Amino acid sequence: MSLTPGTLGQSPQILWIGCADSRCPETTILGLKPGEIFCHRNIANILVNTDVNSLSVIQYAVQYLKVKHIIICGHTMCGGIAAALDNKRLGLIDTWLMPLRALRQENLPLLSSLDEFERGLKMVELNVRQGVKQLLANPVVIDGMHERGLQVHGLIYDVRTGELRELDIEEEEEVVKSRVVAFKTV
């Protein structure tokens, strides 16, 4: 079986990386139809550069489907975020949540200054920003951005109101240049 776009008959313009939460269906959130979004979902939309599953999805979407946009979307009231902010032992899921707990540690003074709701919302935002950072350092994504204008977006979905908010992820030119020097492969 060939994994070329023509064989599968799909040509989505968007790669959606989101949470596995059943309240966050990507096509409904964006008002699109089945087939218009290629997606990867996991608990708390965590992206790490060692997850072969998400890396394979990203490579296929960018290199073969030639998506024009990658969206990483977190959401309010996320159980994975709540678990990472708690100190209960959860078993295997603790391993998956390690990147979130590291993010919590890095931002402990800020998070400790917030009430429970704001702390959860800030962790969602920090996690999306971390995912954007991972995407922007991915050589396949770097190529897609430079060769054909691929765009990366960080969003937060409010499950109570249905509001979708885009994060400002603009970077200074020097940051972009240094990342390309460090991560672009040929």
From TrEMBL:
Gene Ontology BP annotations: carbon utilization; cellular response to carbon dioxide; cellular response to oxidative stress
PANTHER family: CARBONIC ANHYDRASE
Reaction it catalyzes: hydrogencarbonate + H(+) = CO2 + H2O
UniProt key word S-adenosyl-L-methionine: no
Binding site for Zn(2+): 19, 21, 75, 78
Keywords: Lyase, Metal-binding, Zinc
EC number of the protein: 4.2.1.1
GO cellular component, one term: cytoplasm
Protein known as: Carbonic anhydrase
InterPro entries tied to this protein: Carbonic_anhydrase (IPR001765), Carbonic_anhydrase_CS (IPR015892), Carbonic_anhydrase_sf (IPR036874)
Biological function: Reversible hydration of carbon dioxide.
Keyword Metal-binding: yes
GO MF annotations, alphabetized: carbonate dehydratase activity; zinc ion binding
Family: Belongs to the beta-class carbonic anhydrase family.
Binding note for cofactor: Binds 1 zinc ion per subunit.
SUPFAM superfamilies per UniProt: beta-carbonic anhydrase, cab
Cofactor(s) needed by this chain: Zn(2+)
UniProt organism field: Capronia epimyces CBS 606.96
